[in-house]
Specification:
This protein is mostly helical. It is built from 2 helices and no strands. The radius of gyration is 16 Å and the shape is elongated.
């Protein structure tokens, strides 16, 4: 697997997580109490995971770019 393929996989996972969040959002108007708290927590977890996938995808996509300090490798 190449770096670009791996970046694409992270991008696909980002899309999947966004779809999951979109599916759960209508329930925010229905749930109450502890169920609402757990739903919000689940959506927040998916959101954090999606953000990480997007960042990793961008870092991998620009891994070999020279002079791009925004995506510096962590060595």
């Amino acid at each position: 697997m190449t770096i670009n393929e791996l970046a694409g996989e992270y991008e696909r996972q980002y899309d999947i997580l966004n779809s999951k969040m979109d599916g759960l959002k209508p329930l925010l108007n229905i749930y109450t109490g502890e169920d609402l708290y757990l739903l919000r927590r689940k959506i927040k977890t998916y959101y954090d995971m999606a953000c990480e996938c997007k960042c990793i995808s961008a870092m991998l996509t620009h891994y070999y770019d020279e002079g791009n300090s925004k995506y510096e490798r962590l060595n």
